[in-house]
Automatic annotation (TrEMBL):
This is Phosphoribosyl-ATP pyrophosphohydrolase. Pfam families: PRA-PH. InterPro entries: NTP-PPase_DR2231-like, NTP_PyroPHydrolase-like_dom_sf, PRib-ATP_PPHydrolase-like. SUPFAM superfamilies: all-alpha NTP pyrophosphatases. It comes from Candidatus Nomurabacteria bacterium RIFCSPHIGHO2_02_FULL_41_18.
């Protein structure tokens, strides 16, 4: 994941898009913008899927990742994202499976973000 985040960081630097150095909340206008960017790419993916356009699907999946990685950078999570991903993965793996659906059964546990993100700014 790090190599791809570095490519998006290069884009952010070129176009003066914020990159925080430590985990932080961001102003509402920035989080709203990040949401709209990702939402637009997901909608474009869906259009490609509905049209059976695999080339467009592939392109939009990368655009979705680009939006996600950019949001990781804006929140300053780039140094912690691999550990966060592993923790969320372990939480997902603790779920039960029943009739094509994942359930939070007796073995389920929530991902422990507190152990990874200590001292996060809550200014916004």
């Amino acid at each position: 994941m790090t190599k791809r985040i570095d490519l998006v960081k290069e884009f952010h630097k070129k176009f003066k898009v914020p990159v925080l150095k430590k985990p932080s909340l961001i102003p509402k206008n920035r989080s709203d913008l990040r949401y709209e960017l990702m939402k637009e790419e997901v909608e474009e993916y869906l259009l490609g899927a509905k049209n059976g356009d695999l080339k467009n699907i592939a392109k939009e999946l990368v655009d979705i990742l680009y939006g996600v990685y950019g949001t990781i950078l804006e929140h300053g999570l780039q140094d912690d994202i691999d550990e966060i991903f592993k923790e969320v993965h372990l939480s997902h793996m603790s779920k039960d499976y029943s009739k094509y659906k994942m359930l939070k059964g007796k073995n389920y546990f929530k991902p422990n973000m507190k152990k990874i993100l200590t001292g996060v700014s809550k200014k916004f």
